[in-house]
Every structure is written in C-alpha cells, then in structure tokens.
Amino acid sequence: MSQANNEIRYLNPPTVEVKKKKYCRFKKAGIKYVDYKDAEFLKRFLNEQGKILPRRLTGTSLKFQKKVSQAVKRARHLALLPYVTDLLK
Fold it and tell me: Which domain CATH number covers 81?
C-alpha cells in the first residue's frame, strides 16, 4: 500500500516548454539603419516603464542592440519618446 502512494499519476502528461530560437529581426528583415524618428517602431524595444529591453529578451544581435539603444536615446532627447512613464503600451 505505501508503495502505491509514492507513485505520481498525471491526468495529462506534464508539459515541457520548448524554447523558440531567438533571432535578430533586423538581420532577418535586412534592415541596415534604425531610424530614431520612428517612435512606434522603437516602442517595441521598450517596456511599460520606458526602459530599453535587453538582448536576452528581444533576441536582437549586439550590433543592432547598440543601434537601437542609440536611436531610443536620440528619440528621448527630441521628446519623441519619454524617459520615464507609467503604462507606455
């Protein structure tokens, strides 16, 4: 009896999360220049507080992450994007 209680039974098989391969959307789309004047595009790389998302979340390559961060900083300087906010999206 005690041996039967130690067995764990699942109604559904336990789900194993499969990680999607991260890719650089700039290399995939062939984008060479990140435009700082396109605020709607740059908002994809910001979280709700207006912080720049890291590479490990977006999958952006180092080369384009630097270009994105520079474009976001320029857009903030020209008041196209806020420095700090609540619920940006």
Answer: 4.10.640.10
Q: Is 2 among the domain residues?
A: no
Q: Is residue 21 part of a domain?
A: no
DSSP state of 52: B
For 36-82, the pLDDT digits (tens) are: 999 999 999 999 899 999 999 999 999 999 999 999 999 999 999 99
CA dist list (Å): 89 to 6, 49, 61, 75, 85: 48, 9, 24, 17, 10
> Residue 66: helix, strand or coil by DSSP?
helix
Residue 50, amino acid: G
Domain interval for residue 84: 26-89
